[in-house]
Amino acid sequence: MRFTSEQRLDDGVLERGFTLGEIPGILWTPESASASAPVPLILMGHPGGLQRMYPRLVTRAQHSAADGFAAATIELPGSGDRPRFAALEEARADLRRAVGAGEPVTDEIVDRLVLPLVELAVPEWRTTLDALLSLPEIVGPVGYSGGVISIGVQLAVVEPRISAALLFAGSFVPRVMFEEARQATIPLLVLLQWDDEGNDRQAALDLFDALGSKEKTLHANMGGHTGVPQFEGDDGGRFFVRHLK
């Protein structure tokens, strides 16, 4: 891991850009974090385009820091300034065509779009976690917060260092992920925007039903994809305080 930039935000949070091989990312740590007082970590997922998503990500990170957590995010494969993958670009184009024409988004399109992304992104997240936990000011347990929900589900299943996850139900879900969801055991909180124009509401409900965790909670709110109520950030903070502290 190589740090490429550093700035102190107004609330004292230290923001550092980094690269890990070809993976760009950002780490935020609260002012209190030190080698003698390390803090737990929250991994922040997003749909790709780190620069585009930055305003929302930094707000989420500052909320996490106020609760005593470090937060980190990375750019998804094939997004932002990272090299493109022809198959993913073709699947994205087919998705846009179907949505623009008012046609159903087929399982075949969803599989081509999401499954390769999960296959590429999950190992990168785990490698990033290795590097982050080697820093003296960061310690487990670890949480995951955000989307793409299929990435979050697989991380919740395969990564034993993740102790709790807040999943954003705002993306298409391949059918194979429902079987994987049954293997989840950690505490989960799922956020669903009821009127999300880019999300299959019934699939999100079915995925929640499939999640195998004994402790799982669904928060459904009226509104579109970006209309998550402010209070959900506070509830998410309390969720992680319960499970990571």
Throw out a few tags for this protein.
245 residues; alpha/beta; 7 helices; 41% helix
What does this structure look like?
This protein is α/β, with parallel strands linked by helices. The protein has a single domain, classed as Rossmann fold (3-Layer(aba) Sandwich). It is built from 7 helices and 9 strands, in the order ββββαβααβαβαβαβα. The chain has a 9-stranded mixed β-sheet, sandwiched between helices. α6 links the parallel β8 and β9. The two termini are 26 Å apart.
Number of strands: 9
Widest beta sheet: strand line-up: 1-2-3-5-4-6-7-8-9
Structural class by sheet pairing and helices: alpha/beta
The number of domains: 1
SS summary, helix count: 7
CATH topology: Rossmann fold
Span of the ends, CA to CA: 26 Å
Low-confidence regions: none
Give the overall shape, derived from the CA principal axes.
globular
The major β-sheet equals: 9 strands, mixed
CATH homologous superfamily heading: Alpha/Beta hydrolase fold, catalytic domain
CATH class: Alpha Beta
What would you say about this model in short?
This protein is of the alpha/beta class and 245 residues long. The protein contains 7 helices and 9 strands.
Task: Set out the fold topology.
Layout: E1 2-8, E2 14-20, E3 23-29, E4 39-44, H1 50-66, E5 70-74, H2 86-100, H3 107-133, E6 138-146, H4 149-158, E7 162-169, H5 176-181, E8 188-193, H6 201-210, E9 216-221, H7 230-244
Parallel strand pairs: 4-5, 4-6, 6-7, 7-8, 8-9
Antiparallel strand pairs: 1-2, 2-3, 3-5
